[in-house]
Amino acid sequence: MIQTTTLPNGLRIITEAMPGFASATVGIWVQAGGRHEAAAENGIAHFLEHMAFKGTKTRSALQIAEEIEDVGGYINAYTSREMTAYYARVLGADVRLALDVISDIVLNPIFDPREIEVERHVILQEIGQALDTPDDIIFDWLQEAAYPDQAMGRTILGPAERVAQFGRADLAGFVARHYGPDQMILAAAGAVDHEAIVKQAEAIFGALAPVGMPVLQPARWAGAERRELKDLEQVHFALAFEGPAYRDADLYTAQVYATAMGGGMSSRLFQKIREERGLCYSIFAQAGAYDDTGMITIYAGTSAEEIEALCGLTVDELKRAADDMTEAEIARARAQMKAGMLMGLESASSRAERMARNLAVYGRVPGLDEVSERIDAVSREAVRAYAERLAASPALAMALYGPAQAAPSLGAIRERLVA
Predict the structure, then answer these.
(1) Catalytic site residues?
(2) Which residues are within 8 A (CB) of 209 and not within 5 positions of it... i.e. 6 or more apart?
(3) What is the spatial order of strands in the sheet that 282-289 belongs to?
(4) Across the strands, what pairs with 227?
(5) Is there a contact between 365 and 358 (Cβ–Cβ < 8 Å)?
(6) DSSP strand E in 72-224: where?
(7) For a FRET experiment, which of 9, 167, 324, 408 has its CA 20 to 30 Å from that of 209?
(8) Residue 207 φ/ψ, nearest 5 degrees
(9) Distance between CA 310 and CA 301 in Å, rounded?
(10) For residue 191, what are the CA distances in angstroms to 72, 188, 196, 349?
């Protein structure tokens, strides 16, 4: 059963007790991520996530790790464009300890200058590793091409030259603006007791003053091309359309469409481009959503000799979907989405994250039956109509990395799509 409590200062607490579970996941989801940064701060939310584990007023970095691992637990964090999460997975008997440690690293980081320098080098290595991973960095470049010169288009890691300059005052300033109790969600699932967690949270967070929710810079889809030529084994190709935001009526239609187009081995793009033509090893499509925008993304990796044919066939399949997407394809996509949702919720960690994200977006957690009904309500006609609108849209973004000299331009892809 899911239970929610909101403290007077705005901290939202949501839990789901899962009978039969011996473990639990406890975490704090902060509604501050990459798109909350000013241009000069790009990368600081991620830097802050790293620094949270480097010591508090009462615990050293080693003690943070030891206290969780001494009881067999696991602690981690991640930064996305709209949230930063800090969480731990422990046995039910250690939930109180986990919440104490997680809240400590979120509320009381000391930002030791020596540790800042150590972690700066770690993050610069992470940036270098991303640049050496073509099927990773291509999506950052695609994001930048879709949303140029704005927070939504900047990378989460940030550029090396920015990361090299962040200091203690920068980190503390970001925390002061974005880490108020009204910007946080405490989520826990598994072997948890709601009332016990609320009582502990009141003691830890109750005296904190709200700071007000941040105002996001609205996302403006522009669409552009980024082509980075490099002598690699493959050309990495990513194409995107603007998709629906979380609260848009077309959200589930777009997700069913993307799943049918490239969500598995039976999908159109996989069958036509990989299985029938052998033009690539990997190809997929996905639909991602944000607060006020979204992105339908197609990715493939292929040889320099095949990139032109792959791009052409991809565009042809996008156009064809508006005319002959079958009921069987739609039914399969709906089944994949529902099964994926249910299978993904077989862990306490997945449930805690789902609750936190839904509470942040919708102010509530839609029931699984409700979500399944909305997926089932997506008809073949709706998907075909959506595919037709996408094919008629001139607003595309594209990123290419590798020996991409023979790849068509974004303009040429647009022309073929609307022809």
Answers:
(1) 49
(2) 9, 180, 181
(3) 225-229, 396-402, 235-243, 294-302, 282-289
(4) 400
(5) yes
(6) 74-79, 84-91, 184-190
(7) 167
(8) -85, -5
(9) 9
(10) 15, 9, 12, 12
Find where tokens 């241009």 sit.
39
What's the rounded Cα separation, in Å, for the pair 261 and 268?
Answer: 5
Nearest by Cα to 305 from 277, 347, 264, 338: 277
pTM of the model: 0.94
Contact (Cβ atoms closer than 8 angstroms) between residue 86 and residue 77: yes
The pLDDT profile of the chain, 419 residues, written as one tens digit per residue, is: 999 999 999 999 999 999 999 999 999 999 999 999 999 999 999 999 999 999 999 999 999 999 999 999 999 999 999 999 999 999 999 999 999 999 999 999 999 999 999 999 999 999 999 988 998 999 999 999 999 999 999 999 999 999 999 999 999 999 999 999 999 999 999 999 999 999 999 999 999 999 998 888 899 999 999 999 999 999 999 999 999 999 999 999 999 999 999 999 999 999 999 999 999 999 999 999 999 999 999 999 999 999 999 999 999 999 999 999 999 999 999 999 999 999 989 999 999 999 999 999 999 999 999 999 999 999 999 999 999 999 888 789 999 999 999 999 999 999 999 88
Q: How far apart are alpha carbons 309 and 111 in whole angstroms?
A: 52
Amino acid at residue number 293 = T
